[in-house]
Design goal:
The structure holds two protein chains of two kinds.
Chain A: H1 2-21, H2 24-49, H3 58-73, H4 78-97, H5 106-126, E1 130-131, H6 135-140, H7 143-165, H8 168-178, H9 180-185, H10 190-215, E2 219-220, H11 228-240, H12 247-266, H13 269-284, H14 288-304
Antiparallel strand pairs in A: 1-2
Helix pairs in contact in A: 1-7, 2-7, 2-10, 2-11, 2-12, 3-4, 3-10, 4-10, 7-10, 8-10, 11-12, 11-14, 12-13
Chain B: H1 2-32, H2 39-57, H3 65-84, H4 92-118, E1 133-136, E2 139-142, H5 143-165, H6 167-177, H7 179-184, H8 189-202, H9 205-213, H10 220-235, H11 240-261, H12 266-280
Antiparallel strand pairs in B: 1-2
Classes of the chains: A mainly alpha, B mainly alpha.
């Protein structure tokens, strides 16, 4: 009960935040946090819960961004273009995502990386130019709208993952992660659950891509296909805590803030620091930053009793 | 006919390089089931080391190997002691996953650190024989390409001899076949893993020289890792002799694709081949069913 109240007040606070802070800079940061948290959760469903570590999530993110951009610049309003982007991403999952489950374990990881590179090179070749916002679209462009959109999608995603983690479906996904053969042996259709996980994951990635395409004014068409969009959500999820509801959100906050902190003074050094933190997390904190809280709480409890 | 032979020759030259690129990765993967995706970054670092050695000590790039190989042996030793040793006790799939993730972190760190320290500019070592060619029946064969092929054959042969003819090499092979049984036979398994990991990293020096003679930048590490993975899969996992053939196959296919679909999609052809093999023949084209 207490936690529900906390969450409700947090959501309310975030809804009124733009009215209170009135700083475009902070609003930008909040949008980025929402975007990364959404994308990272999208990876988390497939990689954290279902254990299928994808190194090619940018493909679906990019597909969402590309579709959104084309429709939006073509005159479709953003609230229609956004779900269309998600749909395009899902269709792409049907075309290339589900067949990639023929690859198991680490083969899936390197195979999806190869798919992401194929997508990147193809888009680079087909659309080498820069995407500009047209004047008509500029009227629709407002940071406040983007913030509410990004926040809405983010909250919906977190809620969906929360529901998933408490459902039978979530349990099935975890069983696939823990031991695919054992899950198969007790009658779980592992392929079906992997497909379900990927469908949810790609739809969310498509939404995130649409928000990126809405938020970024001018960028190269292939920018959302860059490998970084595959790697960042993975790093964020692992550092925050893969396979948890809170982890990717915590990870996204740390990621965006670190990036801001170092971008001004040291440029690219945030990737370096994140890489090191990532290795340390994989080695010593399999549950990520969220895991630390768990350890502390456990110690607290045992100290009291 | 002449054009075809010319294309084929380029395929063979880049194929030999791909074979060298994949060799260290394949050794490490075969012996202890670590998927070291940082291998491309290590090759990139080796190229920079060659560059500095040539620049400051005025060595010939190929001569610089006598410094580069020991350096990378030590780097491999340190990496194993610091990061990879603790994974040895994990069960098979966990081991693979964690080694993939850790080396992936190393790949990110190295390529970004190199960009920060040495900028993203294209570099190359220029020698007196850069760009020189032999004309053989109308086919132009660059010196460096020929040297790459010789280097690849010698190195693969040497590693093969080491693994089959020396006592320690046999111990490494025993570990790769059955970790536990090897330890029951009195083989110091963790030491065998340590040395083979260090050798695997040291082997990054050879492709490093060839890359240094072409143009390179820090971001080449992703590309190299990619090529190494493709060759690893084509060759059949853990097959060292297959590495040379896998490399040649990829090289020739890429060269042919330049001819057929244009230079822009050269990488894509290799990647598509890779994904198809992963899906339908994950044990490799020449490999046995695991």
């Amino acid at each position: 009960m207490k936690s529900k109240l906390g969450i409700a007040s947090f959501v309310l606070l975030m809804i009124f935040a733009p009215l209170l802070i009135k700083s475009e800079y902070l609003l930008n940061l909040l949008i980025l946090i929402c975007l990364y948290a959404t994308l990272s959760h999208s990876w988390n469903i497939l990689g954290g819960y279902c254990g299928q570590i994808s190194l090619g999530h940018a493909t679906f993110f990019g597909a969402g961004a590309l579709t959104f951009r084309y429709l939006w610049l073509g005159g479709v309003s953003y609230y229609l273009a956004l779900p269309a982007g998600a749909l395009a991403s899902l269709i792409l999952a049907f075309a290339i995502g589900f067949p990639s489950f023929k690859m198991k374990g680490h083969y899936f990881s390197i195979g999806t990386l190869a798919l992401a590179m194929i997508a990147l090179i193809t888009v680079q070749n087909l659309l080498p130019g820069v995407s500009f916002i047209t004047e008509a679209c500029l009227k629709e462009y407002s940071l406040l709208t983007i913030y509410y959109l990004a926040f809405g999608v983010g909250v919906a995603t977190v809620a969906a993952v929360y529901a998933l983690s408490r459902s039978k479906l979530g349990l099935a996904l975890v069983s696939v992660r823990e031991d695919e053969e054992a899950a198969e042996a007790i009658g779980i259709n592992t392929f079906k659950y992997k497909v379900v996980a990927m469908s949810i994951s790609t739809v969310i990635a498509g939404f995130a891509g649409g928000i990126f395409a809405f938020y970024c004014g001018t960028y190269y068409h292939y920018a959302p296909f860059e490998l970084g969009w595959s790697f960042d959500p993975l790093l964020i999820a692992f550092i925050g805590g893969a396979g948890t509801v809170v982890g990717p959100v915590v990870g996204a906050v740390v990621f965006v803030l670190l990036k801001e902190l170092f971008a001004a003074s040291l440029g690219q050094v945030n990737v370096l620091i994140f890489g090191i933190v990532f290795i340390v997390t994989v080695l010593f904190l399999p549950k990520g930053l969220v895991g630390i809280a768990g350890i502390v709480r456990k110690k607290d409890r045992s100290a009291r009793t | 006919m002449g054009a075809l032979l010319q294309i084929l020759s380029y395929g063979v030259f880049s194929g030999a390089l791909y074979g060298l690129v994949a060799l260290g990765l394949s050794l490490v993967f075969g012996v202890m089931n670590y998927l070291n995706v940082a291998h491309g970054a290590l090759i990139m670092l080796a190229s920079y080391t060659v560059l500095w050695v040539c620049y400051y000590l005025h060595f010939d790039p190929f001569l610089s190997l006598i410094l580069v190989i020991p350096t990378f042996f030590v780097i491999g030793w340190i990496l194993f002691m610091g990061l990879f040793q603790r994974l040895l006790a994990l069960p098979e799939t966990e081991k693979l996953k964690n080694s993939l993730l850790i080396s992936f972190g190393i790949l990110l760190i190295c390529s970004n650190a190199a960009t920060m320290l040495w900028t993203a500019d294209e570099r190359a070592v220029a020698t007196s024989y850069t760009g020189k060619v032999i004309d053989l029946l109308g086919v132009r064969l660059p010196y460096i390409g020929l040297a790459t092929v010789f280097l690849a054959i010698i190195v693969v042969f040497a590693v093969h001899l080491f693994l089959t003819r020396t006592y320690f090499g046999k111990a490494i092979r025993a570990v790769s076949q059955d970790y536990e049984a090897a330890s029951w036979m009195g083989i110091n398994t963790s030491r065998a893993c340590l040395v083979s990991f260090a050798i695997g990293v040291a082997l990054a020096g050879f492709p490093g020289v060839v890359i240094a003679l072409q143009t390179f930048n820090p971001m080449v590490s992703f590309d190299l890792t990619n090529k190494a993975l493709i060759v690893l899969i084509l060759a059949g996992v853990g097959s060292l002799r297959g590495v040379l053939f896998g490399g040649l196959l990829l090289g020739v296919v890429e060269a042919a694709s330049v001819f057929l679909v244009g230079v822009a999609y050269r990488e894509v052809v290799g990647l598509v081949l890779f994904v198809l093999v992963l899906m339908f023949r994950p044990q490799g084209i020449g490999g046995r069913k695991a």
